[in-house]
Structure formats: structure tokens, C-alpha cells
């Protein structure tokens, strides 16, 4: 991508070091106010990448709903790193971005959850997307805190991780077992 060098320089000027994510996707900005969760599963657990996205997005939607957020799956107008499986609040702001990579025998689903302070991230996305000639809307970037979730960041992270462990969704509690590389 010819704009990559300019986008990288723009991020560095704002104090963000560019990193190429294993799961791929378009440019995102995150810092210590974000939580990145990587979920791994055997490749055979899901029939295809859409089924894996569906299961992962539903899991994050349900956990955010448990925290009192009107969480929905789907893109919002003008969102950064747009995707059909983004998790948003109220259909207005993106809170969780998902990306995935299928490897030889496993599948990685990465979620980036903005916990608070999206105003710190917006200038970075502005600069990087401008350098890459990509459109986005600043208003599309939201956070868990902006949706009324209370508590310290440690408490919010604990609730999110505990919620993921307790969900009866494919990523959190697989309903299939792999025996000798075959679904059982």
C-alpha cells in the first residue's frame, strides 16, 4: 500500500508506534485505554470465517449487554476499520473491532475494545486515515465508559473477561470437541 509510509509517519508524530497486527484489518489506534483480547480456536471448530465472526461478535455483544450497554452487531456509518461484525452501541458508535486470521490448524480472533477516552484516539485515526486517503467519521468512535459503564478500568476489564469466560458462545465455551484433528 503506497500510503503506508505516510500513515506510519503520521502515527509516530502523534506518539503512536505502528504495528502490523497478525489478524490484519485496516488501521486502528489503541493505547492503554483499550483492551485487546485474542481468542484462539481449532480451525475445524467453525465451518468458515463468517461463522467464526458471527460467534465472536455475538459473544462480545452479549458481554457488553450484560454490562448495561445497548450493544449490537454491525457497522456504524463512517466507522474506522469498517466491518460487518463490529460491535457497536445503540447503532451509533463502534466499541469493539474484530479481525481474524485462519492458520494451518487454528483460528485467531482479535478484539479491540475501547474502554474510555476515545478523544485521545480520534486525532491519530484522523491523521492516519487522511494519509491513507480513507474516509471515516470522528463521531463513530465510542467507548465502554461513554456508554455509562462505571468502575475502575481494572474492574471493567475483570467484568469483560469474566463475562467472556461465562458466556455460552462458541468462542468462550466451544460446543464441539476436536479429537485427533476431527470434530467429535
Automatic annotation (TrEMBL):
Domain BPL/LPL catalytic: 10-128
Signal peptide: none
UniProt name for this protein: BPL/LPL catalytic domain-containing protein
Organism: Cryobacterium serini
Lineage of source species: Bacteria, Bacillati, Actinomycetota, Actinomycetes, Micrococcales
Amino acid at each position: 500500500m503506497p500510503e503506508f509510509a505516510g500513515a506510519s509517519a503520521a502515527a509516530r508524530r502523534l506518539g503512536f508506534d505502528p504495528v502490523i497486527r497478525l489478524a490484519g484489518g485496516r488501521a486502528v489506534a489503541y493505547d492503554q485505554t483499550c483492551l485487546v483480547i485474542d481468542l484462539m480456536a481449532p480451525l475445524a471448530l467453525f465451518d468458515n470465517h463468517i461463522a467464526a465472526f458471527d460467534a465472536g461478535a455475538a459473544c462480545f455483544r452479549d458481554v457488553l449487554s450484560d454490562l448495561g450497554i445497548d450493544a449490537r452487531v454491525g457497522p456504524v456509518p463512517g466507522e474506522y476499520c469498517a466491518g460487518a461484525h463490529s460491535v457497536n452501541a445503540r447503532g451509533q458508535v463502534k466499541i469493539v473491532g474484530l479481525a481474524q486470521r485462519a492458520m494451518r490448524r487454528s483460528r485467531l480472533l482479535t478484539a479491540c475494545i475501547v474502554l474510555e477516552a476515545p478523544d485521545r484516539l480520534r486525532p491519530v485515526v484522523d491523521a492516519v486515515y487522511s494519509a491513507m486517503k480513507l474516509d471515516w467519521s470522528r463521531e463513530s468512535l465510542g467507548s465502554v465508559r461513554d456508554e455509562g459503564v462505571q468502575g475502575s478500568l481494572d474492574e471493567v476489564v475483570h467484568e469483560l473477561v469474566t463475562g467472556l469466560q461465562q458466556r455460552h458462545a462458541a468462542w468462550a465455551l466451544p460446543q464441539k470437541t476436536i479429537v485427533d484433528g476431527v470434530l467429535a
